[in-house]
Structures are given as C-alpha cells and as structure tokens.
Amino acid sequence: MYYDPIKKSLGEVFNRTPLLRRLFYHLLDLLLLRTWHVHRELRQWSKGRTTEALNILDAGSGYGQYTYWLSGLSRKWQILAVDVKDEQVADSNRFFREIGRTNAQFAVQDLVLYQQPNTFDLALSVDVMEHILEDVEVFRNIHASLKDGGMLLISTPSDQGGSDVHADGETSFIEEHVRDGYNIHEIQQKLRTAGFERIEARYSYGEPGQISWRLSMKYPILMLGKSKLFFLLLPFYYLVTFPFCLILNWFDANVKHDSGTGLIVKAWK
C-alpha cells in the first residue's frame, strides 16, 4: 500500500487552520507509539539544556510534529527541519509563521546530498532511513553536520517484523519503504562506518506496541486506502480503540524489550 497519498489527504484536512494542525500534532503524539519513544529520549537529552543556544536538525521532518514539539521546549533552540517534499515544507513554514514559532525553519533538502559541517548539537531522524537506499551516505552527512559531542537520534523499523514483514517472501506493508527494517547490529555497523564511535540501540514496538500499531495505524490506513469515506468513520473507530492504544503505548515505552519491530538508536560524534 502506498502511504503518501493517505498522508497527503490527512494533511489537507488538518492544514485548514492552525488550531486543526495543533490538534493533529497532539493526536499524533498520543497515537503514534514511536513518538512516545522519541519524546522519552528527547526529554532525557534536553535536561539542563533548555537555557542553552543550541542548533537542531530535523532530518526528514514530514508533517513537522517533532519540530513543533522541540520548538516549544526552548525558544533558545534554533531548529532546521528539512524534507524532500516542497508542498509539505511550504505548509510547515506557513503554519509556524502563523503561530509565531520563529525559532524553526523548514527547507527542501535531499539528505543524501545535504551537509552543513559542524553546525548541529542534535540531529533527529524519525522513520526516515527505511525510505532511503543510500543510508551510509546520509549517516556520513549527518556525522559531518554535527558538532563534536553532538547526538543523532534515529527511530526506524527493525528486521524483527518491521514494516509488518515476518517471513521471507513477504512484502512491506508500506510500499515506499526501500528496506523492511534494520538488523540491530547492521545499523550500528553502518553508523560506525559513517564515523560515529559511541552508539546505543534498543528495540521498540514489543508485543504491546505491535498490538497498538495494528489498532491505531495499520487497520485505519487499510480502511482509508479502500475509500476516503472511511474518514467519516475514523472518529467512531478511535472512540473505541483509543483508550486501549494509550495503555499499550505506555507499557511499550516503559518496558525493556528483548525484541521488537522498531529500533531506537542513539549515536554520538
């Protein structure tokens, strides 16, 4: 299934007013399990840093929800959010101007080519690397763009069932993925090849998270892929499933997993 047309349709609905877009971000924060894991890591990173003038790169910003969240933590942080989609970048710049978030800027850039040497204290890459074939080149560019001591935070599917692929011969649930998921040792080795020395990796989307993902993401996306009329049914669907997803997300984000369909990786320059 191609996910981008569905994402575009959602964007068209929630881009109508700043209030709707803020609501959309809050819903994503609650529903998307990866956000729970990413926010947890960002809170840890941000301790004692909110009064510092820091530069942050959101590498593959998508809707811009992580830039929105980070820009609200400290006005002293300057955030550059890059993406390859012109329309999404333009929408995000317009929204951030409307709400007065002047410490964030969006730009069209290709991560395979983009490099800004010794500029950023933190780089964030959430569900991006599974879309890019030339991953080592991207890791090298981000490594070069980080200051000494800077950190890269990655969220991406693993090879333990990521992209809903559980056996040889199965194909990814999301057609835009160029890889179903990373082996936990593979991604660490690729980061070392790119120049990173200290690397930490753990699994996300354990058993609770996999159930939550199916309820909150897979089944709704399948429905929307069949017909846009399912937009009308989504509020009623989530009215039933939302409380269960919140509980499952909390458990997944607060329990250590021996395996999981997602990976959270931190690498320091």
TrEMBL record:
<dbReference type="InterPro" id="IPR029063">
    <property type="entry name" value="SAM-dependent_MTases_sf"/>
</dbReference>
<feature type="domain" description="Methyltransferase type 12">
    <location>
        <begin position="57"/>
        <end position="152"/>
    </location>
</feature>
<dbReference type="InterPro" id="IPR013217">
    <property type="entry name" value="Methyltransf_12"/>
</dbReference>
<keyword id="KW-0808">Transferase</keyword>
<keyword id="KW-0472">Membrane</keyword>
<keyword id="KW-0812">Transmembrane</keyword>
<dbReference type="Pfam" id="PF08242">
    <property type="entry name" value="Methyltransf_12"/>
</dbReference>
<protein>
    <submittedName>
        <fullName>Methyltransferase domain-containing protein</fullName>
    </submittedName>
</protein>
<keyword id="KW-1133">Transmembrane helix</keyword>
<dbReference type="GO" id="GO:0032259">
    <property type="term" value="P:methylation"/>
</dbReference>
<dbReference type="GO" id="GO:0008168">
    <property type="term" value="F:methyltransferase activity"/>
</dbReference>
<feature type="transmembrane region" description="Helical">
    <location>
        <begin position="229"/>
        <end position="251"/>
    </location>
</feature>
<keyword id="KW-0489">Methyltransferase</keyword>
